[in-house]
Write a structure and sequence with these properties.
This protein is an alpha+beta fold. The protein is built from 4 helices and 6 strands; from the N terminus they run H-H-E-E-H-H-E-E-E-E. The chain has a 6-stranded mixed β-sheet, with helices on one face. Strand 1 and strand 2 form a beta hairpin.
Length: 139
């Protein structure tokens, strides 16, 4: 009887921790939606790992490094008319291993220059106590 109680306690604790981690990751993405929608590309990039090892994979191939990805976003979205209002739809948020998750979803941009949408898969890693995107593929 004690063993069963301990087992359920451990399972409950694990699920609780898992849900807390997921909420923190979703909070990062919510902050990104807000920053992007305010045409604050630097604020949007706060969700990414500030490293030369950061990777973004899109139509033009792989872009490496936080600074290069920031420059790419600024070039492709130079004004509020181009960045518009961002909304994410999360289709899956799953743990890969301790300290790492992947998120699959859709993005929607409502813009003056024409709406855009697509899909993404991002990988979050807990770095120095904060959840950061270490790899992003969007199309």
């Amino acid at each position: 009887m004690i063993f069963i109680f301990v087992s359920f306690s451990v399972i409950g604790f694990s699920q609780s921790k898992l849900e807390k981690e997921k909420k923190k990751i979703l909070a990062v993405m919510k902050a990104q939606e807000i920053a992007w929608s305010n045409n604050n590309i630097e604020g949007f990039m706060e969700g990414y790992w500030k490293s030369d090892s950061l990777k973004f994979y899109g139509r033009n191939g792989v872009t490496y490094g936080w600074k290069n990805i920031l420059a790419r976003y600024k070039k492709n979205y130079p004004s509020k008319a181009h960045s518009g209002t961002l909304t994410f739809k999360i289709n899956d948020l799953s743990k890969i291993k301790k300290g790492a998750y992947f998120v699959m979803g859709e993005y929607y941009l409502k813009r003056d220059v024409g709406n855009a949408n697509g899909i993404f898969m991002i990988i979050f890693k807990k770095i120095n106590g904060k959840w950061k995107i270490i790899a992003d593929t969007s199309s």
